[in-house]
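We include the pair:
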Amino acid sequence: MHDTIVGLLDKADLAIASCAGVIEEDDLEPMARSVRDARIRISYPEDMSVVALVGGTGSGKSSLANAVCGADVAMVGGVRPTTGEPLAIVPEARAGDIGGYLGDLGVSQQVAAPIPPWLCLIDMPDTDSVEIEHRLRVEQLLPRLDMVLWVVDPEKYRDAALHNRYLKPLSAYSEQFIFVLNQIDRLAPTVVESVVADLKKALREDGIESPRIVAIAANPTSGPPMGVSDLVDVLGEAVKDVRVFDKLLVDLEQGAAGLLAATGGAGLDFEARARAVVDVSARMLVDRHTRSAVDELTHFLESIAAEAGGSTGSRVRQIATFVPSHVESVADEVKTSTPIENRRRRRRRARSSDLETSRADRRDAAGEMLDDLVIDPTRNALAARAQANAALTDLAISVASFRGRH
């Protein structure tokens, strides 16, 4: 299994390399970052899940962490030394197993606690923090973790910022999500059911088809925590089903699809279209309709650029800027026979020097020159695009095949 995942990552690296110069570097970076993160993650234990506690101010994330641990390991009420930084809670027996990965994540605050050996909890900064850097820290870490416990309270479970900023954009990863409705001790039992139903409705509107919701009271006003042991059981079952590489497969699948779209996707039938436009343009030049030939070739290149998109499109547009000067030079050459005869000799198509150049000869020679000056550079740009498409398609097929088998 590990070797197969490494093989997929190797294909992803090859696809990214093939896209260099075809797709803008900024568009390649998210997938490159996902691959780097995945290589780091698979170098650490697969039998331990790194789970984030995520929620807004007052949702009770730290209280939940304390309830899971059975001890006050995560200070509540905003008195943690650095509330803008995540706090990792690691199992006492395995702190050394996961410490390196937490260091790679940049999680410096760590505490050992009596939690299950398969679990590493990360208490995250508030998603609705007034400090922008706190929210950015959450957004930076979320894509790199195995699972997420989204903690909400009865008052703010429909908070628009939570749903629009996080849940809708991340809905493809819903297999990694468990939703925790905290503070149910503040509600009547019948009201709890209606709130859970409404939360489920809101999550389905976000694109999360089958949300897992657990209702708890991590720190009730009286009595022991409610529902926390059930949550741990649900989480334990979830991590058995969700392997650490599941999110990677989603990332690779979405990344390949996005980059394929950025390259322009399917083929452009370039060769047939190029032959046709060169033939028409060469005839125009022989008839001394130079301006028409310029317009014909320019329109062709602009169409190809629009269909190719991305960096390839930009390169083709750049080629198009030279069309007027190229066409002028070809037009000058087809006015007399000698230059054409010399050019044709260079292509090893010898003719007797005293043979009058025919109209067909002029047209053929003009076509050859246009092919050299305009079509070949465009063909080379599209060849790089085709290589990128092939590598991305191979990656997408390999990921889909792997997911189908598992």
